Amino acid sequence: MKITERRLSAATRIVAVVKTVAGSSPRPVVILALGVVATVVAGGVVQVFAPERAPLIVLADSSFSATESQMPGDSFRFAEADYRAGAELSDKPGEGVVYELVLGGTPEDLLSQLGRYFGVEGNPRPSEYFDSQWPGYVVGPEDWSGPSVVLSWNGSGTWYYSNPNAYPESVCEEVSATESVEGVTGIECRTPDPVGPLPTPEEAKAEAAEAFRAGGFVVSADDIEVLVDDEWGIGVSATTPVGGSATALEWSMYWAPGPTLASASGHAATAVSRGTYDTISPVAAVERLASGRWWGTPPLDYDNLYPEEFYADGVPYDAPVERGSGEPLSVEVGSSTPTLLLVWDALGGAWLVPGYLMSFGKQEWQSSAVIAVGDGVIQIQEVLPIESMLVPEVRAGVTRW
User: Fold this and answer.
1) Is the CB of residue 253 less than 8 Å from the CB of residue 264?
2) CA–CA dist 133, 174 (Å, integer)
3) Which 3 state secondary structure label does DSSP give 48?
């Protein structure tokens, strides 16, 4: 392993101190100083090396399996995928910046600010569901009796405003078998038709830009996208750029007819650079893609939010594929696009790391994300198999582990 010139000079300065000791002892002398380990043996031979560096990020294993990857599908449809690098896929490594998402201030201060902006009454407080895994805070009621803002004080610091009264309640009535859509006697519910005006796209984007700014995200109305615009409501969205790249940190707002603001969301954390690191090549990343363990959330693709079909090596998404029904699907990764991926560490922290969108189809949405940071920077925490987990022994009312 290479060590820096500074560490090497520090190590050589201690050699003179130990030469007399090494010369009088037949055994090697090991000295630790300034993060450098020096072994001095008889005869003045010096071996200097630096200790292994701890990983910057420790991720929980998010894969279905450590040995196989599966194509997208629901819980009843699985197909193993055999990924391979296409002839045009680059084999050149690179480098990229790793960002940690850091929370500043206090959750109470942020909730007070958001509560004032959205007109939510009450004082910020820990949620009744607060625990170490989900350190949640809230202003407003938690029983859905009125508007509230909920904040998760970990990771990216996601906050969410909701107004349960934005949409009319469903109307339910008892119907006979002849009146029922299903042909049976029972209770049927229907949602009243939407009534009332909605903001225009331009008005919605302008109001969203103002609201996002109140939450700490300065964005132009021109950079906000319209997600949906119909008689039931209008929704807009934007993502936080970091280092000139799009990210998965999405901010959104939705209005119901009235118009009434139904929901809004954003993030409290700020991206802080933790250094530039080597990245593996797209060809090398194919192996990671196949393992299913090196996944991260890519930026939202506004142009392909609702794909109607999915193909993998000529196999339609809705094809009847069952687990173990045949050979693995052969998937050729033809190209890749550098991107930033959102990942969560084992302690609940969030990071933005260099990655690739690996394309294996003709459409933009036919791709999968994979982390590209070089070995040693990220460690994936192993998940114990169910059969190897400790099971408590209960005997005569006494539990033992």
Assistant:
1) yes
2) 43
3) strand
Mean pLDDT of 126-142: 94
Q: Tell me, what amino acid is at 107?
A: P
Length of the chain measured in residues:
401
pLDDT at 3: 35
Separation in Å, CA 212 to CA 144, 206, 257, 353: 24, 10, 21, 24
Query: How big is the CA angle at 100 (ends 99 and 104), to the nearest 5 degrees?
Result: 130
| Angstrom distance (rounded) from CA 92 to CA 89 | 9
Q: Worst-scoring range by mean pLDDT, 11-15, 45-49, 296-300, 379-383?
A: 11-15
- 96 neighbors 289 (Cβ within 8 angstroms): no
Distance CA 316, CA 72 (A): 12
Sequence letter at residue 101? L
Q: What angle do CA 116, 119, 120 make, to 5 degrees?
A: 90
The structural domains of the chain, with segments of one domain joined by +, span: 5-49, 57-100+272-386, 103-270
pLDDT, averaged across the chain: 78
Please state whether 122 falls in left (phi above 0), alpha (psi between -120 and 50) or beta.
left
Rounded Cα distance, 137 and 127, in Å: 5
**DSSP H/E element including 10:** helix 5-24
Q: Are 344 and 350 in contact (CB under 8 A)?
A: yes
- CB-neighbour burial class of residue 48 (10 A; exposed 0-12, middle 13-18, buried 19+): middle
Partners of 317 in the β-ladder: none
Write the CB contacts of 190 (distance below 8 Å, at least 6 apart in sequence): 170, 171
How many angstroms separate the CA atoms of 228 and 209, rounded? 17
Q: How far is the C-alpha of 127 from the C-alpha of 107, rounded, in Å?
A: 11
